[in-house]
Design brief:
Elements: E1 7-10, H1 18-28, E2 32-37, H2 41-53, E3 58-62, H3 68-82, E4 87-90, H4 106-134, E5 137-142, H5 153-167, H6 170-175, E6 178-185, H7 194-201, H8 205-208, H9 215-226, E7 237-240
Parallel strand pairs: 1-2, 1-4, 2-3, 4-5, 5-6, 6-7
Helix pairs in contact: 1-7, 1-9, 3-4, 4-5
Length: about 240
């Protein structure tokens, strides 16, 4: 697999979850990476420093992808530094509200739905037109396993809305050579440290000894979809189970 020379935005890439592993892995595969964060500036800088120490290219961009201005700031920074955006990975989404349907907090529920679909609707008009012009692009969203659902109704509804929004975009995007796909894991344990995330990215002992789905498993599937090997895969929902 290779993403040599491609420019990738990875939202929510400075935490201890999937975004960080995706950023590290796309950089490993040769992509220039925009490491998005909202509050974890030091973590984002550490990821960028690691990528650059390995000869890669990356920048950290603080932006709230739940807001239109934040998404514009993110894309503008990517284009200013790297001239274009080829890959867009949308990870962050709704909160964790576990109220049953007879005791829903409507405000929290609607916020969950907004947080799941707002990044798509803000980012698509900013990145897809140029992807269409080049007849090449990858747009990938992190959603939820289709059958192993957590006990959080509004969270599940938000993820379902995200998945449908992406699936309904696939045909138009494919007409212009852009693929749209979904990674759909059940809950994935975090990787505690950047050092361990790097070790898993490099397929070291921490990767070999894993006993359940890791953020690195998600990252490997993203790298595959973003490579030429994934050129003709679109409208796909890739489920991951955790033990």
């Amino acid at each position: 697999m290779t993403c040599e020379g491609k420019v990738a935005i990875v939202t929510g890439a400075a935490g201890s979850g999937m975004g960080r592993s995706i950023a590290l892995t796309l950089a490993r595969e040769g992509a220039k990476v925009v490491v998005n964060y909202r509050t974890s500036g030091e973590s984002a800088k550490a990821i960028v420093d690691h990528i650059e120490s390995r000869g890669g290219s990356a920048i950290a961009v603080q932006a709230d992808v739940f807001e239109a201005d934040g998404c514009k700031k993110l894309v503008d920074a990517a284009v200013e530094r790297f001239n274009q955006v080829d890959i867009c990975i949308v990870g962050p989404g709704g909160g964790w509200h576990t109220q049953p349907i007879d005791r829903l907090d409507p405000t929290a529920t609607l916020e969950d739905v907004h947080h799941e679909i707002a990044p798509l609707f803000y980012l698509m008009p900013l990145v897809l037109p140029d992807m269409y012009k080049r007849n090449w692009g990858r747009f990938i969203g992190i959603a939820l396993h289709p059958t192993k659902l957590p006990p959080a109704y509004s969270y599940n509804v938000g993820k379902a809305a995200r998945a449908q929004a992406l699936l309904l975009a696939q045909n138009q995007a494919w007409f212009y050579g852009v693929t749209v796909n979904i990674i759909a894991p059940s809950p994935v344990p975090a990787i505690k440290s950047l050092e361990e995330a790097i070790e898993q990215c490099n397929h070291g002992p921490a990767w070999q000894k894993r006993t359940t789905t890791s953020p690195q498993d998600i990252a490997e599937s993203v790298a595959f979809l973003c490579s030429e090997a994934g050129r003709f895969i679109t409208g796909c929902v890739i489920p991951f189970m955790s033990s």
